[in-house]
Amino acid sequence: MNRFSPSGEPLLGDQGFEVADVPSFEIVRRLGVASPLVLCLPAELLKAPPSEAICELMRETTTVVGPFALERADEAREWLSMGAHYALFLPPANLGIGAECPPAAKPLAEVVRAAAAEVAIPAERMMLLVDVPALENAAALARFQADIESLAAPAGSGCYECCKKETCGAVSGVCVVVPPGTSEKIEADLLGVLGPLAARDRLQVFLGGLSMLTSSAQPSSVGHLHHSFAIHALGAATLAEEANVATPAGGFVGAPPVAVVELPAAAASLYALFAAPALELGPAVAACVRTDRSDGLFPTLVLEADGAALGLVYSSTQSIGAALRCGRGVYWSRSRSSLWRKGDTSGAWQTLRRIQLDCDADALCFTVTQHGIPPAFCHKTSLSCWGQPTGLHALQLTLFARKASAPPGSYTKRLFDDATLLRNKLVEEAQELAEATEPDHVAAEAADLIYFAMVRCVAAGVGLPQISSHLDRRALKLERRPGHSKASRIAAGDAILSEAKGKAGAAPASTGALVGASTGAGRARWLPVIAFGVYALYFAPGTTLALGQRRVAALLALPSERLWRGIEPLLAVEYPEGTFYEPHFDFFGGGGGSDKLSEPAFTPPHGSNRFATVIVYLTSAGEPGDGGFVNGHTVFPFAGFVNGSDSLDGVAFAGAVPGAPACSFPAPSTPKAARGMLVQPRRGDAILFYDQRPDGSLDGRARHGSCPVVRGTKRVINVWAWNRDVIYR
């Protein structure tokens, strides 16, 4: 019986913390939430690629898979590449640790290194299964210590967590199994050998079979090993509140199996671990945490699966066990002195992904997936108790919100609805990032590309956690593809860019509409802008304009740090004969040619918007023979309005040029008639006008257009400055 809702929420009993009838896979996943899992599988399974179910388990938990024969180390490569963190190997039959080596035999560490090198498995991904031999005398103990020392990292080399060659020995760690009936003295000797190696981060040590672990299965014994020796307890575990209650896991060390799998003879010592009493995982984890609080609680940081900090809470031994049993975020309420299962009243419940201890073992970290509408951890209905998220986390939330419900005119909504536009923007922004050189420019272009990439991800229902998961999985791969560029993809990208540069009637980066005249004589084109040197812009042979973002920033008195963040990339526009630009606003929220002059979502103090426009003329209005054009003036129909915030509803237009509404003024007979303004383009001149007033309101007098070009070609550069960082809605 699958006790999960369609949305993935666990369906629990009256107490809310039952594990009965929960799928075996989910039980094993929860066992791996707070500690590594050792997956002991039969040889025939290890020879084949891992199943999809096991791959999913390896993605969700830290796993040690084995036991593999060292002579066939190549079988472990695929498992490691598919997500296993470590491969557990059996030592050679003739080289038992602590045993006397044959005269001609090579040292154990040398054999291990040679086997790993032959199949290119890094030492930091290897662990060795160690059966404790009979240590009857000091000589046997010395041999055992020497063999273990040879496997460990050199003294003073650093910690295994760094995963560097110089901080790892022949293997990353050992799984040591103490045989039943071992005396307390020998157990103490073992701890004396293994403890210093683990405490100094020279070797990970998983130790099972100790009498303190097998006799009564007390969680305090796990805490003693952790605090005193930095050693991990190895054995069977359960989520149930009563020890020895079997939970089905089918061959996993970490939960008592229903049927013990057939293991190689060299791994027979592991059977003793299956037969021992199972430790309840929750109290065992709690025993590893230190606290100096009088109430015995543990400070607990709660993180989203994408790494965003949600809040600080407190955990107890009881709440840790409850969280593991139900797979949800469960904490201890200090005000109510009781368990607090997040979301029971608010609906903002959590799926528990991981429990970690910090390096001093005095604080916990719960990694969760936050659910709810909205997904809020804070009682103020925000995701985090530390205010609104920023950066990628904020972008992700905004995009998912836009996907669910977007405001009118949303550019993000347009991208969701137009897959071709989104594809083209991804190609375009990738090229701009590749060509950027200045550090802040690189950062700005990367931000643009990340925005469009995240739109693509959210459109497919993918968020940062899934992306992070793939990055983590790729880091575990042992083989890397050459990484050469793909000629077919380069050609496809070039075709998209060429089409975008020369496509007739391309959509402008403005809120207006660029159209052809009724004569159909031609359409305007967007030109490529190549920036280099001191931002000189080259548009055609012999036509150079030494003006760029720095000049515009100086003109607007923008600080240098806002050079790339506050000014959009320069845009060149070409008007062939017969083209014009309809009246429009450059700011967002004005509805293009409509008369809505204020939408709070896009105006200060609520959001970013364009506040100033600079138009630079590259050609002059004159005779085409002089490289200029006829007509094509820039028109401001409402420049004479006393109060530009007045509604423009009902204002009629009288065409100054027949068939060219862009060159029109309000009809003299209308109540709001006013004298407009025409600007005659002249090469080298620039005009500056503001789209917002000082108080942030949108200025209706900024409505402008371009009169039709009768003959010749008009070329301009458009520059837009923002009151805050440039954003895409």
Architecture blueprint of SSEs:
Blueprint: H1 24-31, E1 37-40, H2 43-47, H3 52-60, E2 63-69, H4 74-81, E3 86-90, H5 108-119, E4 126-131, H6 138-151, E5 173-177, H7 184-199, E6 204-208, H8 211-214, H9 219-229, E7 232-233, E8 237-238, E9 252-253, H10 270-275, E10 279-280, H11 281-287, E11 298-304, E12 309-315, H12 317-326, E13 330-333, E14 338-341, E15 350-357, E16 364-370, H13 391-404, H14 411-417, H15 419-435, H16 439-459, H17 464-476, H18 487-502, E17 514-516, E18 525-527, E19 530-532, E20 536-540, E21 543-545, H19 549-555, E22 571-575, E23 579-584, E24 610-617, E25 629-631, E26 634-636, E27 653-655, E28 664-666, E29 677-679, E30 686-690, E31 704-706, E32 709-712, E33 714-722
Parallel strand pairs: 1-2, 2-3, 3-4, 4-5, 5-6, 6-7, 8-10, 11-16
Antiparallel strand pairs: 1-9, 11-12, 13-14, 15-16, 17-23, 18-22, 19-20, 20-21, 22-33, 23-31, 24-30, 24-33, 25-32, 26-29, 26-31, 27-28
Protein name: Histidine biosynthesis trifunctional-protein
Catalytic activity: 1-(5-phospho-beta-D-ribosyl)-5'-AMP + H2O = 1-(5-phospho-beta-D-ribosyl)-5-[(5-phospho-beta-D-ribosylamino)methylideneamino]imidazole-4-carboxamide; 1-(5-phospho-beta-D-ribosyl)-ATP + H2O = 1-(5-phospho-beta-D-ribosyl)-5'-AMP + diphosphate + H(+)
GO molecular function, one term: dioxygenase activity
